[in-house]
Amino acid sequence: MPLKLTKEQIVQLAPDEASVKAAKGLATTSKWSVRQFSDRCIWGHCQGSGKNPYQTAVDITDIAFKCSCPSRKFPCKHALGLLFLYESHADGFEQADEPDWVKSWLDKRAVRAEKKEKPGTEAAPVDEEAKAKRLAKRHQNVMEGMADLEVWMKDLLRNGLANVPERAYSVFEAMAKRMVDAQAPGLAARLRAMADIDYGAESWKHELTDKLSKLFMVISAYRNVDRLPADWQDEIRTQVGFSQSRDMVLGGEPLVDRWLVLGKRSQTANGLTTDSYWFYGEHSGRCALYLSFSVPGSIADAGWVPGCVYDGSMCYYPGAGTNRRALPKELILVDGRVVPAFCADLSQAALRYRQHATENPLAEDIPLLVSDVLLAGSGGACCLVDMAGNAVPLVVSDEMRIDVLAISGGKPFCAFVLANDGRWRLVAMWYNNEYHTWRDEHN
After folding, report:
1. In sequence order, which ranges of 270-360 are alpha helices (DSSP H)?
2. Phi and psi of 78, rounded to 5°?
3. pTM of the full predicted structure?
4. Contact 67, 76 (CB under 8 A)
């Protein structure tokens, strides 16, 4: 039978809580006149308000959805309901040959995936002279933008940071737009991240000065980029916002492994949704970050499920450090379990953090795995504490805190966190070797 997802993993696929609630209402055999499966798909017919039932299918080998309903949500409640039904009543599904509408859809997906994985071989000839002129013009634009940015930063510090919290958006957004005009979107993203700091927390001064100092480091490094080692040239240009072609990245040396999806985070800004997926390689012990971008009305190009395992390879973008952005290549969903190698305590995790920060001082959201920890704190403050009494401030919502205590019963658990200097964010946990995570959305 096809691979089954857990209820928690299905929830992670939903576009919103309303879809989850509606889907659970459809997860009953009486709603589905057809319930069938093959080695690569499950499908069914769900009776709606119209005369004809909706035809719904889910590709289980590479999570994807198809439904004849008119819903603009993706996946729709029917696809989620089919998954919930299969999770709870798999024995109620009949193995069958794929009908034409299912087979045609899956075959087309396979062809598109094959084309996507292969670097282009028939690209039009590149006009090197014109390309050089475009790069020179963009470099000039970036340098002029950076000059304005440096003046702005000096004025900000000269006037003091005390009044930043009450006007954070206006302070940073105008300069972020200037960086977009200067063709430096990476710098714009750093400025907008400063506007998103929690200025109600005591740590805002530390976070803001840390981000400002890293922004200044990027500016200084770019002005001397030609003197840097090759990996740092790639890193700094990426930080500024110069893109690297997909074909070039996929043409690099792949790292073959069995990959666990550690977690996912969605962020929406200026109409662009960015889905961040963190992977962990079972044999290499390396982490990888995959970014998927989508605009309103479009469908995200990735459907990796947190807690699931995929066989295949990652092609890392050139840059500094080991935990870098990567492109998945020929990943296949498999029925298996990967238990990561955890740091024994927070001291070891902090050492691992310092090692990664030394490799790349510009890195943010460094992935860390640590075992035998507890949640502690009072009021609005929360910490992650190990058995030796070491503690680190933790970003965790009230809902997550309650869930962690309900799952663990106050006993030690293993955690996946994204670490920044002085403040870590909980993404997922393991208790009794069972994986748990939460929808993490920031708009």
Report:
1. 346-359
2. -70, -45
3. 0.81
4. yes
